[in-house]
């Protein structure tokens, strides 16, 4: 069997022969049909994450069927279908003990601090896992935590969406954005999709976007025209290129929830505007097991996986290139 390895930063993913070790006492071995490819994988390759232990098997979008388990694993059995968080929480800190394990300072990310998903067989810690209902499609299983649960956390828990809220989603044609459109609809909001790719607009409408705006215009003005006063929530998934317009798209008292991009680039922050309009800016990171359970429930009928392409592991570097060139609508999956 082969797995993809990142052996040094700013280098291509290399396929090497690999046999996963036996699972540890608190681990299971998962057989995957698919694993997801996230833009964070590219940022990891480019060196933007300090906790990368090289060489490493990249990928944190993990899920499948348990085929082995360690002696201490009590809550999961061989044959269970599971989805994994993108990290292993410590289970001991104040955040883990309060159910906010996504903020755990000691968490270890799959594909960075330990081997991840670019392999058919993956060893995962039981603290990362949630059982998958039978109604959930196989393509959803690996992306449930990083995409769908992350969006539930950002829009529902951090953004505190209410029924009828207008939500602007930047980068709406990407692997996160297409699912954000569905999440906003599922939670009772009105999604406004921003995309710079004209060819993605029709599909965004099909997914439930009520309006589509373009970064080629001052879309903050378009948003105010659509809503009358501005968006209740902006889900900022792009970063420096859209941040200023996103902030100006908010209504008085609106919330800007930042989920991307993780590059350490400064953005314009007009303090007077924020103060006078009483706006809030919040970061949202990852998801918890409770978020993941909710995401899987929503995935039974309300949120469908939007898959731009399914590729072989050997084509991963071409997959990265297509993502960077914005040639993928939705999520990219590796099939095993």
UniProtKB/TrEMBL annotation:
Keywords: Metal-binding, Oxidoreductase, Zinc. SUPFAM superfamilies: GroES-like, NAD(P)-binding Rossmann-fold domains. One of its GO terms (molecular function) is zinc ion binding. Its cofactor is Zn(2+). PROSITE patterns: ADH_ZINC, QOR_ZETA_CRYSTAL. InterPro entries: ADH-like_C, ADH-like_N, ADH_Zn_CS, ER, GroES-like_sf, NAD(P)-bd_dom_sf, Quin_OxRdtase/zeta-crystal_CS. GO terms for biological process: small molecule metabolic process. Gene3D superfamilies: Medium-chain alcohol dehydrogenases, catalytic domain. The keyword DNA damage does not apply. Pfam families: ADH_N (PF08240), ADH_zinc_N (PF00107). GO terms for cellular component: cytoplasm. Residues 8-334 form the Enoyl reductase (ER) domain. It comes from the Archaea. Belongs to the zinc-containing alcohol dehydrogenase family. NCBIfam families: PRK13771.1 (NF010344). This is Alcohol dehydrogenase catalytic domain-containing protein.
